[in-house]
UniProtKB/TrEMBL annotation:
Name of the featured protein: Electron transfer flavoprotein subunit alpha
Cofactor: FAD
Cofactor remark: Binds 1 FAD per dimer.
GO process annotations (BP): fatty acid beta-oxidation using acyl-CoA dehydrogenase
One Gene Ontology molecular-function label: electron transfer activity
Pfam family, one: ETF
Organism: Limnochorda pilosa
Family matches, as SUPFAM superfamilies: Adenine nucleotide alpha hydrolases-like, DHS-like NAD/FAD-binding domain
Entries under PANTHER family matching the protein: ELECTRON TRANSFER FLAVOPROTEIN ALPHA, ELECTRON TRANSFER FLAVOPROTEIN SUBUNIT ALPHA, MITOCHONDRIAL
Keyword Flavoprotein assigned: yes
Domain Electron transfer flavoprotein alpha/beta-subunit N-terminal span(s) in chain numbering: 5-195
Annotated signal peptide: none
Length: 325
């Protein structure tokens, strides 16, 4: 069994959930022992059951009636109940790379007495077992790990896998079981939503990011912003630019910032430290502008421009403007 452990808010299954459902479906279609069972907890569980079938689940166990709760211990309890209901004595538990998934994966592994791989960027069915890969040493190396035993937990890295597309023609079996017991030991006292102008960086098809080489906050407001605007994208930054106070922390891309997977990532004045590059593993195309021909960013860039951004970027922006009409 490939058991996809989801906690679903009232808005429905989000991108991280669709990514892990897509992965589970591809694994099952590629020979991994199925079925794909979605165990769903959270306030959106009942409504998400049909959605999960359309996204690739053969069977759904939705634990309903818990309502809104910030207490992940209760959600953990619900996911374990869904696992039991699904017959859970053997199989792989696949967990999304969102906040809840990152917290719940090791806790699920502990409760199931299973091994756990976190931040998996590759999962494949090979030689009768699930082979996984995850970045280690801040993205400087990749570890290959295979889980031993009857049960294993794999939490996937956010944006490392293609999200499942809904197929209304898919059929599957869905059942609901009531959430049992427990009173919340945590409550949300305040929620602060970040205000974003334009497209959020994580959703943008193009990210134009600047680093320490920009030399100050102004180019983020002018050149980088303008290039992002023409390309229909968003502006990002390295930690060095954030630490310098040139842009807010929400702009940070990398290991301790955001992971992005745009079609195009333009890195300007960014050296390409492994911790930065860890956040753009999912980018389809990388273009780098840097005055140092030896900068490590050129190792990951498909197209590299060696030069001072002050000379290169205005011409680059002009050329893009002309191409875009
Ligand atoms: C635990 C840990 C976590 C980290 N997490 C992150 C993270 O999430 N994200 C992140 O970004 N970093 C992270 N870092 C920091 C990371 O190691 C680097 O220090 C940082 O990414 C460097 O930022 P930078 O490339 O902007 O600056 P630098 O490394 O200083 O590079 C600046 C680049 O700009 C070029 N340049 C200078 N002037 C110009 C010019 N006029 N025109 C063109 N190019 C020019 C230079 O040649 C140089 O390559 C982390 C570090 C640690 C230890």
């Amino acid at each position: 069994m490939l058991f996809v452990a989801l906690t679903v808010p009232s808005e429905g299954i989000g991108r991280p959930g669709r990514e892990v459902l897509g992965l589970a479906r591809r694994l099952a279609d590629g020979g991994a022992p199925g079925p794909v069972v979605a165990g769903i907890a959270g306030p959106g569980a009942a409504q998400a059951a049909a959605e999960a079938v359309g996204l690739g689940a053969d069977r759904v166990v939705a634990v309903t009636g818990r309502g809104e709760t910030a207490d992940r211990t209760l959600l953990l309890r619900d996911l374990l109940a869904a696992w039991e209901r699904a017959g859970g004595n053997a199989g792989w538990v696949l967990v999304p790379g969102d906040d809840a998934g990152r917290e719940l994966a090791p806790r699920l592994a502990f409760r199931l007495n299973a091994g756990v791989v976190t931040d998996a960027v590759q999962v494949a069915w090979e030689g009768g077992r699930l082979e996984t890969r995850r970045p280690v040493y801040g993205g400087k190396a990749v570890a290959a790990l295979a889980l031993q035993g009857q049960v294993g937990v794999i939490q996937v890295k956010d944006r490392a896998f293609d999200a499942a597309e809904p197929d209304p023609a898919r059929t599957g079996q869905a059942e609901e079981i009531p959430a049992e017991g427990g009173s919340p030991r945590m409550k949300v006292v305040e929620q602060v939503r970040e205000e974003v102008e334009g497209i959020p960086m994580e959703e943008a098809p193009v990210v134009v990011a600047g680093g320490r080489g920009m030399g100050g906050p102004e180019p983020f407001q002018t050149e980088l912003n303008e290039l992002a605007r023409i390309l229909g994208g968003a502006v990002g930054a390295s930690l060095a630019a954030v630490d310098a106070g040139w842009v807010p922390p929400s702009y940070q891309v990398g290991q301790t910032g955001k992971s992005v997977a745009p079609n195009l990532y333009v890195a300007v004045g960014i050296s390409g430290a492994s911790q930065h590059v860890a956040g753009i593993a999912g980018a389809k195309h990388v273009v780098a502008i840097n005055k140092d021909a030896e900068a490590p960013i050129f190792r990951v860039a498909e197209l590299g421009l060696v030069g001072d951004w002050k000379e290169v970027l205005p011409a680059f922006i002009q050329a893009v403007r002309e191409l875009r009409g």
